[in-house]
């Protein structure tokens, strides 16, 4: 093949322009909503337990039964996994733009519907909530491969990593916003009602209008997504899809001429020649794909799977960790709304001090020190801090050492986000061919969500105390938080090992990385040699 298409080269060498920032905001607001919707549920599960499962005369307020808790926290993750596979495949078949608006509509509608969950019994309300959260997750799942692929195909090669990471970094603001919204709503209700604690007066510690609190918090997530729908629909299809997959050189040149504000030639003859090359014809299940990208796909899927076991279990049971070290008082020493406030305050502090800064450290440094180094370093420090928390766990539970525990716990979040949580999202959007890029990103992301499901469901049980008198109502004894943290440390160590299969993609064009610039079937993408040497 005689070099790269002019329109793709123009994108690769383009200076950072206004359209880059527009694309980051449009794609990023989807991720803001994704994170808000996925993580805000952990803020309200204690309230749901109090509202629907408190027994009259019980010494402690009600909690969600184990299966209900697992369903409420995990069903959106199941939907996300399915959505990543489905919309990832659809994005390569129909085009990124045509599918992009559909995922956003699904997210907005189901986010609103989650807050309108109805039923005459607690079981009915929570079954409806789970139904809508599954489809909310399905829409969120589509946003992963589509946003990453669109941003990678719009970006120049010099700052591509920072742009894709910036889209993903909006997750941090989504998690932070979830905590802030819960703080504002719970504070307003707390000031209005000023109720006694459960211990002082069980019946007076909760009022019926608190049922609106969790609904308001869940529904708020639809707002930022709805505001960006118009702009998503105005974005042109990416030139790489139009030229390399749809084989429409004229449309690709026309679209990018408007975006870049330069005249670009429609190289129709060159596009036709490209379509005959073997490097532009093999499929996902071919021997050629296995030879060129098999190890890459193993690397991106395993590292994302292992990362998300640790990341989501940390996020979803952090309220239990805060309770265990005394940051959040025992449930009976708070009223229902004050419990929401205390959980939200703890999550907001963690997000503000570690989660958000970690994402933006990645944005600033990913194109300087590279994806590989950041991912390896992130897994290494996550392993170190997990073991540092777990091995002397009894030391951290003493009142004098609680601040130290929170600092160490925050550092594991910082290095997750200034590390594999960002890079596992970036790399699959760069190293696969255009016609399979969205599909392969979807497969990698779905492996991650499989890990998240293991984290959300498995550690819900595993983190229970070994003492039967200290477990949550309805749960069997587990291995305890200390042993759970040791397990997460081991998982992070394996993530570090599997990172060795992931290639470095810094500073190269997408066609170089995927092998689409190769002259024939025997050529291999340059990046493969990098993976083999490592």
From TrEMBL:
Gene3D superfamilies per the UniProt record, alphabetical: MFS general substrate transporter like domains
Pfam families membership: Sugar_tr
Domain Major facilitator superfamily (MFS) profile: 23-507
Gene Ontology molecular function, alphabetical: phosphate transmembrane transporter activity; symporter activity
Major location (coarse): membrane
Top-rank taxon, per record: Eukaryota
Chain residue ranges for the region called Disordered: 512-534
Extent of Acidic residues compositional bias: 513-526
UniProt membrane topology term: Multi-pass membrane protein
Location of this chain's protein in the cell: Membrane
Transmembrane segments: 21-48, 68-87, 99-118, 162-189, 212-231, 348-366, 372-391, 403-422, 442-463, 484-502
Keyword Transmembrane helix part of the UniProt annotation: yes
Keywords tagged on the record: Coiled coil, Membrane, Phosphate transport, Symport, Transmembrane, Transmembrane helix, Transport
Entries under SUPFAM superfamilies matching the protein: MFS general substrate transporter
Chain segments annotated as coiled-coil in the UniProt record: 250-277
GO biological process: arbuscular mycorrhizal association; cellular response to nutrient levels; phosphate ion transport; response to symbiotic fungus
Gene Ontology terms: cellular component: membrane
Keyword Transmembrane helix attributed: yes
PANTHER family to which the protein is assigned, alphabetical: SOLUTE CARRIER FAMILY 22 MEMBER
Similarity remark: Belongs to the major facilitator superfamily. Phosphate:H(+) symporter (TC 2.A.1.9) family.
Protein name as annotated: MFS transporter
